[in-house]
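>> received
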Amino acid sequence: MADKEDNPELFTAREKAALEFAERMTVDSNNVDEDLWNRLKEHFDEGEIIEIACVIGVFNYFNRFNNALKVDITK
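>> returned
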């Protein structure tokens, strides 16, 4: 994931749009702009975008919950 900028061939345009959406929702959810929405709509229907947003939100919740409570990572 960290190499996605240096190795753009690793992901399809569809995957790149979803990954950017995940990053944007995680870092600055108030900054999901029209350009990103348009790219998402090129690859996903409305239901798929909602599902992706839900999964992103749930995992962000789990991460914040576990981080705040200093939960040890399980193997």
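>> The chain has three helices and no strands.
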